[in-house]
Structure formats: structure tokens, C-alpha cells
Specification:
The complex is a heterodimer of chains A (1044) and B (454).
Chain A (H helix, E strand, L loop, with lengths): L3 H12 L21 E13 L11 E10 L4 E7 L4 E5 L9 H13 L2 H4 L6 E11 L10 E8 L2 H13 L14 E2 L5 H9 L6 E4 L16 E6 L4 E3 L12 E9 L14 E10 L7 E7 L9 E5 L2 H15 L3 E4 L2 H15 L18 E8 L3 E8 L5 E4 H8 L7 H9 L8 H8 L3 H25 L1 H12 L3 H6 L3 H12 L4 E2 L5 H4 L19 E3 L3 E6 L2 H8 L7 E2 L12 E3 L5 E3 L7 H22 L3 H26 L8 H25 L4 E6 L2 E5 L6 H16 L8 E14 L2 E7 L7 E5 L10 H16 L3 H16 L10 E4 L12 H12 L10 E6 L12 E2 L1 H7 L5 H21 L59 H30 L16 H22 L7
Parallel strand pairs in A: 3-9, 5-19, 11-15, 13-14, 15-18
Antiparallel strand pairs in A: 1-2, 1-8, 2-3, 4-6, 4-7, 5-6, 8-10, 11-12, 12-13, 16-17, 20-27, 21-26, 21-27, 22-24, 23-24, 25-26, 27-28, 28-29, 30-31, 31-32
Chain B lengths: L17 E2 L17 H22 L5 E2 L11 E11 L6 H7 L20 E6 L2 E6 L15 E8 L5 E7 L17 E5 L11 H11 L6 H8 L1 E7 L6 H13 L11 H15 L4 E4 L29 E3 L4 E5 L2 E6 L2 H7 L9 H14 L29 E7 L3 E7 L2 E9 L1 H4 L1 E6 L4 E6 L6
Parallel strand pairs in B: 2-3, 5-7, 8-9, 9-10, 10-11, 13-14, 14-16
Antiparallel strand pairs in B: 1-12, 3-4, 3-6, 4-5, 6-7, 8-17, 12-13, 15-16, 17-18
Classes of the chains: A alpha+beta (1044), B alpha/beta (454).
Chain lengths: 1044, 454
């Protein structure tokens, strides 16, 4: 930590540049007459204070810090004092309350003996009380109250330490003989504990009565105002009604550019940061607060943006910190800032020994440190990323959001912005960036415009996807800080909900010891959801789909499944048979009449809140409120579904295989019951397929859509009655027609009303996988469209044959054949031979300067090679292929890419005949281009051939375009070539003007190297084609026309 | 004719003095490795001094001239110069089609009659950057502005980074010489859009037209008049574009370039050759290609190849030239084109383009923009020129003619004390009209060939 003096000195140097961006806000009134201070809480953290002078005893304490914004747009830091962490143990048997002081004393004494607690000011054990409650886990017949000891300690870290001592039995509470004590709720995060205790939700409003808070003598942060308050004086508003509103939150989206060396992806050890673009907005304002780009070296002005140039990189970086500090954003966003921009800046600053740089947070003198984290979540998979100490600023990296929430073919900013914003983005390769940087003020301006756009796009994505609104609502519903949603998995949401629901009922959550339940041995596996074996086929009649709405949540509610209702097998015998329900997996749960489960209560709350939100959504007209309510109902749904996962997560906080096994067992039985009920109540109906929560029914072969829908509705109503509430079988949609390929793979037109279909619904079919080339996705979707929408089986077959024929005749656009893979580690580190790695080595040999570098995506196509040359050796750069006319291995594409997916689709339709698609007339005509370099071409001599029949033309007549036999057909041969020229000219004009439009300039050359763009290869290919055909045309013009 | 007529007079067709200077539109070698930026760059370089000069003459109140957009400062009242770019969502875009279904080949897009929509943005660009123009304070302009025109703009940059326009200034009509006076009336004839090979073949009208030219129609007076026609211009679309439509259909089925085997039906070409042979044997003919004719698509379109018209190409009186094309007849500079430039420019505004007056205004504007086809290459395909923009007008023609228009129209504009004749030549296949121009007086007249089947 730097001295505050040095810190302010370095800061003031650039402060004036950004003073106009400072938060305005209305001045806050303080004192007795001022109204209560209300802030929207955005983040909470805490610090440990050796002597908290705010407290009467000046003891060691944790001070919680609430970072918030007032409705007027002022940033406020509320420092909350006096809240102390606590946990529970079960009282020793034959406990006498009179022994409390003695126990407290021995605890205090034991704690003092631990070195890390020795220096605590004031008592370590602040309080010891008797608490009467129950354990959340297991229902004990007759449901007796148990006595616990609630232990309140000075600092958060002491909780775990003391809990360990107690669990180990490393303490002597004479006269009690027990040596080990089971602890409860010792693993709850201190911040969550605080929020639960004060009834504070994520992103909620906190009110501070004017006569209860104090202003500090000295500011400790860069926020506009700071106050100190005791935690008991906080008034926390639950996010409902009026308190759904938001405050003007400042969001900074930024992007950096670095000047890399040729062929190497920029590395902070060597390569300068040359530009930082910033786009800052405030919620509720349509215009941005700031569009600023900081550049190294001069840069020509940019309309609508502020350009600030610096002579040294150190100044550039320092200025950016000043900018951050002056503008005081609540949220930092960008694209891949967590794993690229921010680490790069911090590493670069340390290479430059810029001691004043790493202060990106809102607290004065607190250095921003970076560390690696690894988030393993069953829902999101495992992600390694960086984390930063940046108190008070929340990092919302749009890349992470997209990876979490959307399944895409590619997550490059280009393809993401095309996907969601409908725009292609110019992509400047990092090798060109260095060139532009070393040019003049105009080329640097060019780069700055590009950089600004990269700062602007994440902001637009955030708006378009309403990520911030949705995440804020999720934080409100789950009751956890906003930042946790990004840094943690689904579990924490359930933990928060569980605590909030259980504690009021005096149910304490046991701390499961890791050893007892999981880790060492594999968690017991239980049977998953069943699938009714699909009856494969192409169904041309409507197929009604019956769905269980919120299947798992409703099972839990219907059967009162919960930790607190589960009866241990050996205790079932003490219960009356009518008091419990036995699940198909053999576990027993008491009925709600005996004790209602906490999980059911949570789910009921969530689902009824969702109903309310949906109803309000229908009535709401204000677009902002609508987006909030929609985010809310989504958040409620997500949270409800997370509850089941929580009980089954073997590495979770409170796994309970009995519960998750019971739930899936109930689910399986319901699917089977539904099948037999449908088939018995509706004669001649057949259940053709059933998945986790849905059943597909074919009622009869000759029904209209309308009839099927009404039967579906009837079936849903009748069958729902045989299940306990709130389980409900719903009829929502028909598939018509429906192509069932195998389990979890199907496609159909989805109808919810009889007028028009809603969409084509495809599951498990090759449309998004990125290790396929685009041709596959395109052909598959076109075929499905022909089959399902046009209902033209022959048309689909013809289309496939046509595509195969085009492919073999080399008429398919090369961009459709490109596959790209990321070079994620050094080439030498790859074990197996992979196409892109082999290609990388080849490219590096050709030209180390332009070869891709680590982290780049390498696009490639597969070309023909020697016989039995492995495919990976035949990977080649598409541009190189275009320029050298290399022949593509079209048969490889047919056999290894197209065939499997197409076979899968057509097999249910044309059965064994499916191979006829890939054999026959249309596969006979094959065109192979003649390469212009390498191989056999080294031994050939170029001779002039007739443009009509390709026979060589004798040297003496070499000026003639045609041989003497073709001369008679000159006009038609000329026309044929002309026809190609005209088509290529048209394409040339359209492609290159399109690139100018995307780039946003007509006077400058297009530099874009975005190989994700569908026209990237095409525009290059058309240049070559046009050049070649024009050359042919020119041969006709050499000779003058014959005259009389 | 009966030989008993003893008073046979021999009439000689008047000859014109036809000069073709160096044709800047003729391409000698083609190179496509370059991009389109250079043509704008050259255009701006050629026209910047001109427009700056015009602007300094127009705004004499000592207003500040910013030499480059990047030197613009917020708030100052100044003049900036650059190329207009109109951002319009309705422009045909290859990408829009791709996003619908990328499996399809590059589709031939139906071109919208107008690109104008509410979301249009007008931008001014120079070598150093671009700025959005805001026409809140200037009622004139948006409609007549075309992408690619070089203009001077007076106004100031607003706080939101736009440039608020007060007034616009164009390069203005280039200088022209007063032509020498002529003693006799002498006519040139313009015809466009004969459209041979159309399904609704109008062979009777073509035959009448031939008869008229060759002096076989009408009476003595007509013969005499006909002999005063010294030159014929055929302004594009000699062949019907109906063939093109069938090609478009065909390519939808067959999908690839190579399979479009027969673009130009041999039949119409043979009759075109015959037609031109007959004409060339009695009158000097200059043939410009048009959109539908068998030559390249990019402007400037190159002369039709002789092998396509084997017989007529042997006549010295038959000239196959580029589109656009410029020559000098009896001292009058004549600039002719087949009309694609006018059609495309029309898509940039909301005017009624069936009105020939509006089309004449576009032609007049182009003279004032000093550019023949500003919208190329953005929406009008043109060759990617590298070190010049040949479409920049260095001098003003005396006669500016556009073929293949909806209707006949003419306007005489006064430029630099000299009249400039603008002519819209209607499409012959639909109107049966041709236009005669008296070179002495620059007075045009329209002639219509009608066949009354009753």
C-alpha cells in the first residue's frame, strides 16, 4: 500500500483532463433535517479494523462497506459497523445453562492460544447464547427442539478457526465429556450472513436514517460521499413495488490496443499498450457520458469523441487511472477484459514499474491485485479466469456473459455482433495494428476509430441482451451481491435462499464435513431421467407434446421433498404410515401436514412470485419496467430450477443423494404413467417418444392439427388429475410434421396455434457445432426446411444431390468449407497431430512474420494430397488455396463431413436407400482445379490453348484466342466467357462496396481480416476469378476486326 | 420507284465533321487486385480545388475554410470539403442476403426503386475521416445529394459530433467554349432501347425506322429532310433485356455462374447485325452498349466485340464505342450515355422518377457536380480505377444525352453564356420514339413511329 501523499500527487497530474466527466448528482444534504439517505446497493465487501473507533469498546471488528448510488446519481460508500459473525454448535448433553460463562471463558482462552487470534482487541467470543431449533437435515419423529449454542465472535475468519477446533474436539469444556461438537452454519460467507441478518437483497435499496449516520473525518475512497453507520440502523427494502426502481448506474466499456511484434500475439513483457478507448454510459441517459480514446503518439481528431494523446506509455496508463477515478464507474465492461485487457494493463504497468497504476478500485491506496480463479460448475463447465481486487467496481465481461448464457458457434466479437446486432464488424489483425501505429496521426486515428468501436460494441450487446437488468433481477431474487452471479455458480443462489427461508423457522444448516460425503469416494450415482425409447420416423401427422411444467420443482412441492422432511430409513418405523410418502426410490418424506419442507416453501415463493411477475409483465407498458419484470420472471425460473441441482451436486454445500434420486424417480414414474394413461384413454394413440419432462403423442394418423390440439388439451387435463398438485401436465404445442431421428435428436415445425407455425425446432442436429464447416450447417438447415416447411421429400433429396454435385464439381464457395480452430497452446505442446497445428507449422515456415500466433484462430480447408497422406497434413490456408488454385479434397468433405448428418436425417425417411444419396449419376462429374504451383506443375510448360476446346495453339498463331476449328464459333465462345465476366464483375462490385460500408469509409482501403465474415474469402476469390476471365476476354481483343 | 420518272434527283446525305479525341473510357488492360477506395480518392483530389474555388466565390464573407475534416474544431463556423456518402439501409446488400441463407449462391437482388428511408444518414468524408451531416437548418440538399459527390459544406460541428449544415456548394458546371456557328441545318439522330429479341418484337416499327433512315419513307420533303441527318447514335440496349430476366430465373434454378451457358441468345444478335449493317450502309452509326448488351457490366462498358456483329463491324461508318462516350461533331461536344447513371442516381431521392423533368434535373445536377456517375462504385458497378477517375467532367459538353429513359424530355440550360442541351432519349421498344437534334440551333425534335394496324 502506497502512502496516501504519493498517491494523490501522481493522480492530480491528469485529473483536470477528465473533470468534466465527474459525477454531477445533486448535492447531498447531511444532518438532522436532511431526509433519509437512500442508496441502491451494488456491491458489498468488508475490511478488518484492528480498533474500530466507531464502536464503544474500540474492539477489532469487520467493517462492511456498501457501495451504492443514490437516486440522484451520487456515489455513496456506507461503512457499516458492529455486525459480528456467528455460528452454532449442538449443546453438550445434559447441558446446564449456568455453565455458559464458564464455557465462554474456556472458548476465549482456547482461542487466545491460536496465534492468529491472539492480538484481537476486545473479546474474541463476544456472545454465547442458547438457541432452540432443529437441524435442517432429517426429520426426527416427534420433531423435538434441540438446544444449540450460538457463538458470536469478533472477526469473520475466527468462525472457521473456532469451528475447526470444536469439530476436532480440541477443547475442554469440563465437566462435559464430549470432545467433538458438530457445527452449524459456520461455512456461511460473512457478507451473506450480514445480508441475511439485515434482510438485504442483491441490488436492493438501503435506507439510512439521517440522525443515525456520521460523516467520517477523512475520505477513504474516490466515491463522492462516505458515511458511517451501525448495522442495526440500516433499513433494507425488499425489491418489490416502488423498490424495483433503479438508480443512475455508471457503466464503462473499454478496449485496449497493443502494438505486437510481427507474428507474435502481444505480450505485456515486450509490447506497448498504444490506445485505450472508453465508452461510458449512465442508465437512464440516452447519450453516453464519455467517448474518449487515449492514444500513444499524436492522433487526428475524431468527430464525436475526445482524443487525448500522450508522449509516453506510462503517461497513457496513468491518465487512464485518472480517468477511471474521475468518472467513477460502478461497472466495468468490455469484451474479454477479464482475461486480456485488465491483466495486460496490470502486467504492463508492472513491467514499466508504474507504481501508481494498479489502483483501479474505489478505495484510496488499495492496490489492484490479480489472481487466478477456477470456477467449476456443473451448469457452466470449468472456466479458468483472472480475478481482481477492485473494491466497489463490478466487472461484467460480456464475453463471460455470452459464454455462460448463450450457445454459439463462435464467440469472437465479430460473430457475436453479427448474431445479436446484425452487423459485421471490421476486424483488424494485430500485425496491421502495429503498422497503423507506426504510421502517422491519420493511421493512428484509423486505429482509434476501430478501438472506439470495440469499446462501444460490448455496451450495445449489454443493452440489447439486457444483461445488466437481468443479472440485477437475479441478484434481487436470489439475495446475493451482483458480482457473485458472475464469479460463482448456481449453488450460491440456493444457499442464500435456503438460509433466508430456514433461519426464521429455527432450522440450522449443518456444516457437512467434506470427508464424510464426497471427494474421496465417488458420489453414489443414481439413475437419471428416463427417456421413452423413440420410435424413429418421419411423422407427417401432428404430434402433440405434453409437458410437465417445471417438472422437478413441482415434484418437490407435490411430495414435500426437502432436507427437513427426509426421514432416515432406520427411523421410518416410528412414523404412522399416513404421515409419510415413500418415493419410488425408497426414501421417505413426511407429509406437509406433519411438517412442510423448506425447499417446497422456497419453490412456492419463487413460482408464485414468477406468476406475479408474469402478470405484471402483461400489464406493464413502460419498456424499462417491462424489461425489469421480464428479467425478474426469468431469474425466478432459473432459481427454481437451480434448487434440484443443488441437492444433487456432489461437490456442493449440502448434497443429498436421497433427495435428487427421489425426484428423478418420481419423474420417471410420471413419464411412464403418462404414457400408459394416454395410450389407454385414447385408443389408437401411440407415445412415440418421451424425454425428461415431456411426452410426444401421435393420436391418430388422420387427424387435423386442430383436432390433435384439442385432444392434446384433453389428455393434459385428464392426466393432470391423476397427479398430486401442483404437478400439472400441460399441452402447449404440436410438432407437425416431426422428424424423430434418435433420442435427443429430432426436428419439427412447432405449432402453438393453428394459423401458422411458430418456428422450426431442432434438437441435437448439426447446426451450431463449430468443428463442422458451414456447408454442413447450411445443407442440414436447408434440407430440414424442405422436409418440414415445404414437405417436399423429393425436393430435399434433389437439393442434397445438387449440393453434392456442386461440391464435387468445385462450385461451392470456399468460405463454406472453412473450419477454424484456435491455436490455444504452443504447437509443440499438442500431442496428437491436429490439422490446424500442422498448418501452423507450415505457415510459420512460409513466413514467420505473417504466421498466426498463440490464441489466433486458424482457418483451414482440406486439399487433395498424396494417396494415403493423413488429413491433418492436407490442411491448408484458404487464401493460399485461392491464390494457387489448389484442388480441394471434395470427397473428403463429402465422406467425413456431409455424409453422417445427412444419413441420420434421411434414414427415418427413406430407410436403407439412404446411401443412394451419395452414389449415382450426380457424383460422377468431378472437377479438379489445376494447381499453379508445386507437384507436377514444375515439369509442365505453359502453352497457349484455344479458349474453345483447350487444344494447344501453334506458336505461329499464338495471338489467336481460338484454334481454327473453333473460329467459326467465335461469337458463342466469346459470349460464354463474357457471361462469366459479367457475373464476376457484379460480385466484385457488390462485395467490395459492402466491405467499404462495413468499414465505414470509402476513401480508405479495406483492411478487414475477419475470416468469420461470409464474404471474406469470396471477395478475394472474385478478384482472382475476374482477373483470370478478363485475361481470356482480352485475348479476343488483340486482333483488330476484319474489314473489307 | 418507276423509271419513267425522268426528274430523278440524287440526294446526298450531308456529312458531319466527326472528331473523336482520346477516349478516356476505353480500358486497355484490366486489373482487379485493387479496391474501390482509390477512385474516391482521385475524385476528391480532382474536384477539391474546383469546389473550393466555387465556394470561395459563393461565400465571400471571409468564412474559415478547414482544409481537412480532422482539423475541424467543435463550434467554429467553417467550410469543409469532402465526398458525400449516404448510408441507406435499403441499398442492396450482399450481406443481407447472406444472413438469410448462406447456402445459396450470391443472389441477383431485385433493386428497390428507391433507397430512401427514415433511417438514412448523410456523411461527409475526406482522406482523413468522416462526419455525419445534419440538415436541421438546411432544407435543401438531402434529396439531390448523391453518394460520391464532392461538395463544400458550410456550417459547424455540434456537441454531439455532427456537422450542422447551413449551405452547400457544388463544383458547378465546368467551362465550355462557344461553338463555331454553322451555316446549314444538320441533324443527328438518337435512338435507344431498340430491344431486339424482345418477346413483344416490334419488327414493324424497326422496319419503318430503317426505311425512314434509308430514305424510303414519305415524300420528297421527307427525303430531303432525311438527307440532312448526318449521324446516328444508338444508345444502348440494342438487345432486349428480357433475355436477362430469363437468365435470372435460370440462375435461380441452376445456381452457379458456369451453368448459365447461354446468356445472349444468338438469334437477336444476328438480327442486330443485319439491322446495323443496313444502317451503316447509309449513315454513319455510333453504337454504345447498354445494360442489357453483351459486353462487360462495369462502367465504362466497353465496345461490343466485333465477333458478335461480324457483318456490320466491317463498315468504316460503324463505330462501336464505350458507354459513356464523348465526341465532337461539327465543333459541338456531345456526351452520350446509355442511362444507367441517371437511373441509379434517381434511387437516392424521393422524387417521382417517372417525371422526365426530374430526370433532367438529375442530369443538370451531374454537370454541376462535374461527375458523370457519382453513385459508382457504391451502387452502380464500375471499374476499380487506380490513378484517375475518368468520370470527372473536365469540360462541359454542348449536348448531354442519356438513353433508355421513360419518356422524351429536353432542357436548355445556360452555362457560362452558352447553351447546354440536355436530352432524355426514350426507350424505342416501348415508345417508338427517336430524337433529332439540329446541330446548328441545338433544337431537338421527337419523332414517333407508329403502326396503326387498322
Amino acid at each position: 500500500i502506497l502512502e496516501p501523499v504519493e498517491y494523490t500527487q501522481t493522480r492530480s497530474k491528469f485529473q483536470h483532463l477528465f473533470s468534466s466527466y465527474a459525477r454531477a448528482g445533486s448535492p447531498l444534504l447531511f444532518g438532522e433535517d436532511a431526509g433519509n439517505l437512500r442508496i441502491l446497493q451494488l456491491d458489498v465487501d468488508y475490511e478488518i479494523v484492528q480498533k474500530d473507533t466507531f464502536l464503544e469498546d474500540s474492539s477489532s471488528a469487520a467493517v462492511l462497506r456498501i457501495y451504492g448510488v443514490t437516486e440522484g446519481g451520487n456515489s455513496v460508500l456506507a461503512r457499516v459497523h458492529g455486525f459480528r459473525p456467528f455460528f452454532f454448535i449442538i449443546c453438550p448433553s445434559q447441558f446446564d445453562p449456568a455453565d455458559l460463562p464458564a464455557i465462554k471463558e474456556s472458548l476465549e482462552k482456547r482461542a487466545r492460544a491460536v496465534s492468529s487470534m491472539k492480538n484481537c482487541q476486545g473479546p474474541i467470543i463476544h456472545d454465547l447464547e442458547i438457541f432452540e431449533g432443529r437441524s435442517l437435515l432429517y426429520f426426527v419423529p416427534s420433531d423435538p427442539l434441540i438446544r444449540f449454542l450460538k457463538i458470536t465472535v469478533a472477526l469473520p475468519s475466527y468462525v472457521r478457526q473456532l469451528a475447526q477446533i470444536l469439530e476436532r474436539g480440541d477443547i475442554d469444556f469440563s465437566p462435559y465429556e464430549e470432545s467433538r461438537y458438530s457445527t452449524f452454519e459456520a461455512s456461511v460467507d460473512f457478507i451473506l450472513r450480514f445480508m441475511i441478518e439485515t434482510n438485504m437483497y442483491g441490488c436492493s435499496w438501503v435506507e439510512m436514517p439521517s440522525n443515525r449516520y456520521h460523516l467520517p473525518e477523512k475520505q477513504t475512497s474516490h466515491m463522492q460521499f462516505e458515511i458511517d453507520i451501525h448495522y442495526t440502523h440500516l433499513v433494507c427494502h425488499a425489491p418489490h413495488g416502488e423498490w424495483l426502481k433503479t438508480a443512475p448506474i455508471r457503466i464503462l466499456s473499454f478496449d485496449i490496443e497493443c502494438a505486437g511484434r510481427p507474428g507474435v500475439f502481444p505480450e505485456p513483457e515486450h509490447d506497448q499498450v498504444i490506445q485505450i478507448a472508453n465508452y461510458m454510459t449512465e442508465t437512464g441517459k440516452s447519450e453516453p457520458i464519455a467517448r474518449t480514446v487515449l492514444t500513444l503518439g499524436s492522433c487526428a481528431p475524431i468527430a464525436g469523441a475526445k482524443v487525448l494523446s500522450f508522449d509516453s506509455e506510462a503517461e497513457l496508463l496513468e491518465a487512464w487511472v485518472s480517468f477511471l477515478c474521475a468518472t467513477d464507474p460502478d461497472i466495468l465492461t468490455g469484451y474479454n477484459i477479464v482475461n486480456f485487457d485488465l491483466p495486460y494493463l496490470l502486467n504492463r504497468a508492472s513491467v514499466l514499474h508504474l507504481s501508481s497504476f494498479p489502483f483501479l478500485g474505489r478505495l484510496m491506496g488499495v492496490m489492484t491485485k490479480m489472481h487466478d480463479t477456477r470456477l467449476s460448475s456443473s451448469a457452466f463447465g470449468t472456466h479458468e479466469s483472472k480475478a481482481f481486487t477492485m473494491n466497489g467496481r463490478i466487472i461484467v465481461d460480456m464475453l463471460q456473459i455470452l459464454v455462460r448464457d448463450y450457445k454459439l458457434r463462435s464467440y469472437s466479437l465479430n460473430s457475436v455482433s453479427f448474431e445479436f446486432l446484425g452487423e459485421q464488424k471490421e476486424d483488424v489483425h494485430h500485425s496491421i495494428i502495429t503498422e497503423l501505429f507506426h504510421g502517422n496521426e491519420n493511421t493512428r486515428r484509423r486505429l482509434a476509430v476501430y478501438c472506439l468501436k470495440d469499446a462501444y460494441l460490448p455496451h450495445r450487446l449489454m443493452e440489447k441482451l439486457m444483461s445488466l437488468t437481468n443479472y440485477m433481477e437475479l441478484a434481487r431474487v436470489a439475495g446475493i451481491p451482483l458480482a457473485w452471479l458472475l464469479s460463482r455458480g448456481h449453488m450460491i443462489k440456493v444457499v442464500s435462499l435456503l438460509h433466508r427461508k430456514a433461519f426464521p423457522e429455527s432450522l440450522l444448516i449443518p456444516d457437512l464435513k467434506n470427508t464424510s460425503h464426497n471427494s474421496s469416494e465417488e458420489a453414489e450415482s443414481y439413475e437419471g431421467a428416463t427417456v421413452i425409447e423413440p420410435k424413429r420416423g418421419f411423422y407427417k401427422m401432428p404430434i402433440a407434446t405434453l409437458d410437465f411444467a417445471s417438472l422437478y420443482p413441482s415434484i418437490m412441492m407435490a411430495h414435500n421433498i426437502c432436507y427437513s422432511t427426509l426421514v432416515r430409513k432406520d427411523r421410518v418405523k416410528y412414523l404412522k404410515p399416513e404421515d409419510y410418502i415413500k418415493s419410488p426410490s425408497g426414501d421417505c418424506y413426511v407429509r406437509p401436514s406433519v411438517k412442510k419442507g423448506v425447499l417446497s416453501k422456497i419453490l412456492e415463493d419463487l413460482l408464485s412470485a414468477r406468476k406475479v411477475a408474469k402478470r405484471e409483465l402483461e400489464q406493464a407498458t413502460d419498456p424499462f419496467l417491462r424489461s425489469v419484470l421480464n428479467g425478474r420472471q426469468l431469474a425466478l425460473k432459473i432459481s427454481a430450477n437451480a434448487v434440484y441441482g443443488f441437492t444433487g451436486a456432489s461437490r456442493g454445500k449440502l448434497p443429498c443423494t436421497e433427495i435428487s434420486a427421489s425426484i428423478t424417480a418420481f419423474g420417471r414414474r410420471m413419464i411412464e404413467t403418462t404414457k400408459s394413461l394416454v395410450e389407454s384413454k385414447f385408443p389408437s394413440s401411440v407415445v412415440i417418444y418421451g424425454d425428461t419432462d415431456s411426452v410426444m403423442v401421435k393420436f391418430r394418423d388422420d387427424l387435423t392439427l386442430e383436432e390433435s390440439m384439442s385432444l392434446g388439451q384433453q389428455a393434459a387435463d385428464i392426466i393432470s388429475q391423476s397427479f398430486p398438485k401442483p404437478i400439472k401436465l400441460e399441452f402447449e404445442k404440436c410438432y407437425y410434421p416431426y422428424l424423430l431421428i434418435q433420442k435427443k435428436r429430432y426436428a419439427g415445425l412447432l405449432w402453438t396455434k393453428t394459423e401458422t407455425y411458430d418456428k422450426m425446432d431442432c434438437k441435437g442436429i448439426e447446426t451450431v457445432r463449430r468443428d463442422n464447416c458451414k456447408l454442413v450447417a447450411n445443407v442440414v438447415s436447408k434440407v430440414l426446411e424442405k422436409l418440414l416447411v415445404e414437405r417436399d421429400v423429393q425436393g430435399a433429396i434433389d437439393f442434397v444431390k445438387k449440393t453434392i454435385s456442386d461440391l464435387l464439381q468445385n462450385k461451392v464457395d470456399i468460405s463454406l468449407l472453412v473450419i477454424s480452430k484456435e491455436l490455444s497452446k504452443a504447437a509443440a505442446d499438442y500431442d496428437a497431430n491436429q490439422a490446424h497445428v500442422t498448418l501452423y507449422k507450415k505457415l510459420y515456415q512460409r513466413d514467420p512474420g505473417s504466421a498466426p500466433s498463440l490464441g489466433d484462430r486458424i482457418p483451414y480447408v482440406t486439399i487433395k494430397g498424396r494417396k494415403d497422406q493423413p488429413a491433418h497434413e492436407r490442411a491448408e490456408d484458404p487464401i493460399y488455396v485461392l491464390e494457387h488454385n489448389l484442388p480441394l479434397d471434395t470427397e473428403y468433405y463429402l465422406k467425413n463431413m456431409l455424409r453422417k448428418p445427412l444419413e441420420r436425417i434421411f434414414e427415418p425417411i427413406i430407410g436403407k436407400n439412404v446411401s443412394s444419396l451419395f452414389e449415382g449419376e450426380h457424383t460422377r462429374s468431378i472437377t479438379v482445379t489445376t494447381p499453379s504451383t508445386g507437384g507436377i506443375m514444375r515439369f509442365t510448360k505453359v502453352s497457349v490453348t484455344c479458349l474453345g476446346c483447350r487444344t494447344p495453339i501453334p506458336q505461329t498463331e499464338s495471338k489467336e484466342p481460338l484454334c481454327k476449328y473453333c473460329k467459326a464459333n467465335e461469337a458463342s465462345i466469346y459470349e460464354k466467357i463474357l457471361c462469366n465476366v459479367r457475373e464476376y464483375e457484379r460480385q466484385y462490385a457488390m462485395l467490395w462496396t459492402q466491405c467499404q460500408r462495413c468499414m465505414g469509409s470509402i476513401c480508405q482501403d479495406v483492411l478487414c481480416s475477419n475470416s468469420d465474415c461470409p464474404i471474406f474469402y469470396r471477395r478475394r476469390k472474385v478478384q482472382k476469378d475476374l482477373e483470370d476471365t478478363s485475361k481470356q476476354l482480352e485475348r479476343f481483343e488483340i486482333l483488330p476486326p476484319p474489314s473489307w | 420507284m418507276n423509271a419513267s420518272h425522268s426528274t430523278t434527283t440524287v440526294m446526298y446525305r450531308q456529312t458531319v465533321d466527326y472528331e473523336e479525341e482520346h477516349n478516356p473510357f476505353l480500358l486497355h488492360s484490366r486489373n482487379y487486385s485493387q479496391q474501390y477506395s482509390q477512385i474516391y480518392f482521385c475524385r476528391l483530389a480532382a474536384l477539391r480545388p474546383v469546389v473550393e474555388n466555387a465556394a470561395r466565390n459563393k461565400w465571400t464573407d471571409g468564412i474559415l475554410f478547414r482544409d481537412r475534416l480532422l482539423h475541424l474544431q467543435q463550434g467554429d463556423n467553417c467550410v469543409i470539403i469532402g465526398v458525400i456518402y449516404k448510408e441507406m439501409d435499403l441499398k442492396p446488400s450482399i450481406l443481407k442476403e447472406y444472413s438469410k441463407n448462406p447456402a445459396e449462391p450470391v443472389p441477383i437482388l431485385p433493386v428497390k426503386p428507391s433507397f430512401v428511408s427514415d433511417s438514412d444518414v448523410v456523411i461527409l468524408e475526406d482522406e482523413t475521416g468522416r462526419i455525419r451531416l445534419n440538415f436541421d437548418r438546411c432544407c435543401l440538399g438531402v434529396n439531390i445529394l448523391l453518394t460520391g459527390t464532392v461538395v463544400a459544406v458550410k456550417g459547424q460541428e455540434t456537441s454531439s459530433g455532427d456537422f450542422s449544415v447551413d449551405e452547400l456548394c457544388f463544383p458547378g458546371i465546368p467551362p465550355l467554349k462557344v461553338p463555331r456557328s454553322l451555316d446549314n441545318d444538320i441533324f443527328i439522330l438518337f435512338v435507344s432501347g431498340i430491344g431486339l429479341g424482345a418477346p413483344w418484337n416490334v419488327s414493324m416499327r424497326e422496319a419503318m425506322f430503317l426505311d425512314f433512315i434509308t430514305g424510303k419513307l414519305g415524300n420528297e420533303e421527307d427525303y430531303h429532310f432525311c438527307s440532312q441527318i448526318g449521324h446516328l447514335f444508338v444508345l444502348g440496349n440494342l438487345l432486349s433485356s428480357a433475355g436477362d430476366e430469363t437468365l435470372a430465373n435460370k440462375s435461380n434454378d441452376q445456381q452457379t455462374v458456369n451453368s448459365a451457358q447461354q446468356l445472349f441468345n444468338a438469334e437477336p444478335l444476328i438480327s442486330a447485325d443485319r439491322f446495323l449493317t443496313t444502317l451503316s450502309s447509309t449513315i454513319p452509326v455510333t453504337l454504345l452498349p447498354g445494360e442489357a448488351d453483351p459486353t462487360n457490366l462495369l462502367l465504362p462498358q466497353q465496345p461490343l466485340h466485333h465477333s458478335l456483329l461480324p457483318s456490320s463491324s466491317k463498315y468504316n461508318s460503324f463505330r462501336r464505342v464505350t458507354n459513356p462516350y464523348q465526341c465532337c461533331i461539327n465543333g459541338r461536344k456531345i456526351l452520350v450515355c446509355s442511362g444507367q447513371n441517371i437511373d441509379d442516381a434517381c434511387r437516392y431521392s424521393t422524387w417521382d422518377w417517372n417525371s422526365v423533368e426530374n430526370r433532367l434535373t438529375v442530369m443538370e445536377n451531374m454537370l454541376s457536380f462535374r461527375h458523370l456517375c457519382p453513385t459508382a462504385p457504391d451502387t452502380l458497378p464500375c471499374y476499380p480505377y487506380y490513378d484517375e477517375d475518368p468520370f470527372v467532367l473536365k469540360e462541359c459538353p454542348h449536348v448531354y444525352v442519356a438513353g433508355n429513359q421513360h419518356a422524351y424530355g429536353t432542357r436548355l440550360i445556360n452555362a457560362n453564356d452558352c447553351g447546354v442541351r440536355l436530352l432524355c432519349i426514350p426507350d424505342f421498344s416501348t415508345t417508338g420514339q427517336v430524337v433529332l437534334l439540329n446541330l446548328r440551333t441545338l433544337t431537338p425534335q421527337v419523332m414517333e413511329f407508329m403502326i396503326d394496324l387498322n
